[in-house]
């Protein structure tokens, strides 16, 4: 999730600039131009396997437009060099409330969760306050909300930090974390659900349990939207209409991928 919410520093400051005043003219009406990370599987990938790729395909079909991609690794500079540069027109998955983009209505809610071996003594853990985690090596992405929760629970000394600010075409921090859980080097890993859920969906040794019992701030669930440029109200309304009319098909894509879907308040799994 850190990669999804990292680029906040520019905020809305650029909205008053001459470039921002012209953004309404940048959208293509001949292609669905998608801004995406080429190596962010299971979310997006250059080979089209990601669930965001499949949502983009569905969107293109409904709009009767061919889907074309601008690829750029997520992290600092992703939005400024893609969406705000005018070379593409929509980010398929973006956290609600991030001021780098204008958010559409959210189309799913998910949460961080804990990955353990199915045969582990920690297999029943569903909160970061569980005493069973004390003294156990736990993988977590540095700087993310669960890292704060782990520290509050007195587990700072047990955390093993991983960094998502990497080019994931050549490095795979989440895959490394899960491999270490499988080998026993880590007792558990706390990972964003849309990343971990699909990766352990069919794994006979690992399981993912969403963290729904840790209500204190920072929150461990996020509503996910599509992101467009701030001035493009008509485009946002068109995407909102797509989401409203095709929510069932979107949910099917997400469920088939293994994304844990929650209610809007992050309190329970969506039926």
Describe the structure.
With 271 residues, the protein is of the alpha/beta class. It folds into two domains: 143 residues, Periplasmic binding protein-like II (D-Maltodextrin-Binding Protein, domain 2, 3-Layer(aba) Sandwich), CATH 3.40.190; 100 residues, Periplasmic binding protein-like II (D-Maltodextrin-Binding Protein, domain 2, 3-Layer(aba) Sandwich), CATH 3.40.190.10. Helix content is 28%, strand content 21%. The chain is built from nine helices and twelve strands. Strands 1, 4, 5, 6, 7, 8, 9, 10, 11 and 12 form a ten-stranded mixed β-sheet that branches. Strands 2-3 form a two-stranded antiparallel ribbon. Strand 8, helix 5 and strand 9 form a beta-alpha-beta unit. The protein is elongated.
Strand content of the residues, in percent?
Answer: 15-25%
In CATH, the architecture of the largest domain is 3-Layer(aba) Sandwich
The helix/strand series, from N terminus to C terminus, equals: HHEEEHEHEEEEHEHEHEEHH
Under CATH, the homologous superfamily of the largest domain reads: Periplasmic binding protein-like II
Report the total helices: 9
The level of helicity is: 25-40%
What is the class of the largest domain in the CATH system?
Answer: Alpha Beta
Pfam family, one: SBP_bac_3
Domain Solute-binding protein family 3/N-terminal: 31-257
Protein name: Methanol dehydrogenase
Keywords: Signal
